[in-house]
Amino acid sequence: MKVLRGGTLIDGTGAGPRAGATVVIRDGRIEAVATRPAADWPHDAEIIDVSGMTILPGLIDCHDHMAMHGYDLARRWGIDEPESTRTLRTAKVLEQTLAMGYTAVRDAAGLDAGFKRAIDEGLIAGPRLVVSLCIISPIGGIGDRVSPSGFSCCVPQDPLLPDGVVNGLADVRPVVRRVVRAGADVIKCATTGGASSRPEHGPRDGAFNLDEMEALIEEAHALDRRVMCHALGGRGLRIAIEAGVDSIEHGCYLDEEPELLDAMAERGIFFVPTFAVYDFHRKSPLPYIRERAHHLQEHHFESLRRALAAGVKIAAGTDAGGHGHPKNAIEIECLVKAGMSPLQALQAATGWAAECLGRERDFGTVEKGKLADLVVVDGDPLADVTILQNPDRIALVLKGGEIAVKRLPSPEPR
Ligand SMILES: [Zn+2]
After folding, report:
1. Cβ proximity of 209 and 168 under 8 Å
2. 315 C-alpha vs ligand 1 centroid, how far in Å?
3. Reported pTM
4. DSSP string, 217-258
5. Rounded distance from Cα 273 to ligand 1 centre (Å)
6. 111, 142, 167, 397: which one has the fewest Cβ atoms less than 10 Å from its Cβ?
7. How far, in Å, CA of 7 to CA of 52, rounded?
8. Cβ-count burial of 42 within 10 angstroms (0-12 exposed, 13-18 middle, 19+ buried)?
9. Ligand 1 centre and the CA of 367: distance in Å?
């Protein structure tokens, strides 16, 4: 048994902070949460004094690319270094991500299911993973990996990362089934281009027809997998929402069709804006990427404000990988800059994020019965959310009640 005592609790439900909180952990789960002082613990209980600190649910990133380490073609194709080197590089990123209080990550393509197994077996440290393996798109979509010269000859096909290219309606269901067979927990697809996609396939250029998306979603749901859909604007964004995806990733031009936001609220479709990645795209060496990222910026902020007003739930995601692996909590700062309150932004990275993953029964909030995924922060993140990006402020990280990081002073002998 472990007892966290004396901290200020922000429980991830959207409720305000509660001072003097005690969290009791037994067998990896939260047994009790209280705000009254108590001292009658079993003699073998490990009492951890967190006075003056803030207890949060373990943080969640709903859109990351843990196994990607750059946007250039050689890195995207995985031909720039030996596979073993890249695997160990990815393992290091997983370990560092957990150490910053991120106890769950949804990978939006690139990470194979073997990493999840390695973490579950204790071979490496890392967050709980929800993996998608690859991006399902039609020919020419963002999952179709061809070079600017039109070649794809050098792309090695890893059986653990199946090809997500769909040739037409009849091909949709077999591709979904193959991706699930290779270990996907969630289906990632794309109905538009993006900021960094090839010049002819931009943020409001469509991919997929409505019947193809309907088949994709029906098949994914039949296999109990949610669908996360990369969609920035235009016709493809509308098709994704009409077909009934479970989350819209990026959604930069949702403000152009406000009725889509009402449809999202009504159907419980989450919005994962991934603001952080566009700050990097605005500094891209490629002019057309910079131009796209600048053009969408104000629309993106307006989309968030309208989504909140419409009652759409927001989930935090960095879309890291291509631009390296900054601290994941950079997205919490971005959400605040875009118009969320610090408390809402924390909810987007905890309670709402867990709902987006369909894992709210297990984690995302500090409540009786949930897994003891917790982070203790030295300071008040509501006063300054950027402290979550500072490793010196991440005092304690628990995953399933086990200590992943502890930077607290040693307890006095009792
Ligand atoms: Zn992404």
Report:
1. no
2. 14
3. 0.96
4. HHHHHHTT-EEEEEE-SHHHHHHHHHHT-SEEEE-TTGGG-H
5. 10
6. 167
7. 6
8. exposed
9. 31
Whole-number pLDDT of residue 412:
54
Residue with tokens 């709210």: 360
Low-confidence residues of the chain: pLDDT under 50: 414
Supply the DSSP symbol for 386: G
Q: What is the identity of the amino acid at 130?
A: V
CA dihedral 346, 348, 351, 354 (to 10 degrees): -130
Rg (CA), the chain: 21
pLDDT score recorded for residue 414:
46
pLDDT (0 to 100) of residue 202: 96
Tokens of 287: 């002019």
99 contacts 325 by C-beta, under 8 angstroms: no
Ligand 1 center to residue 66 CA distance, Å?
10
pLDDT of residue 410: 60
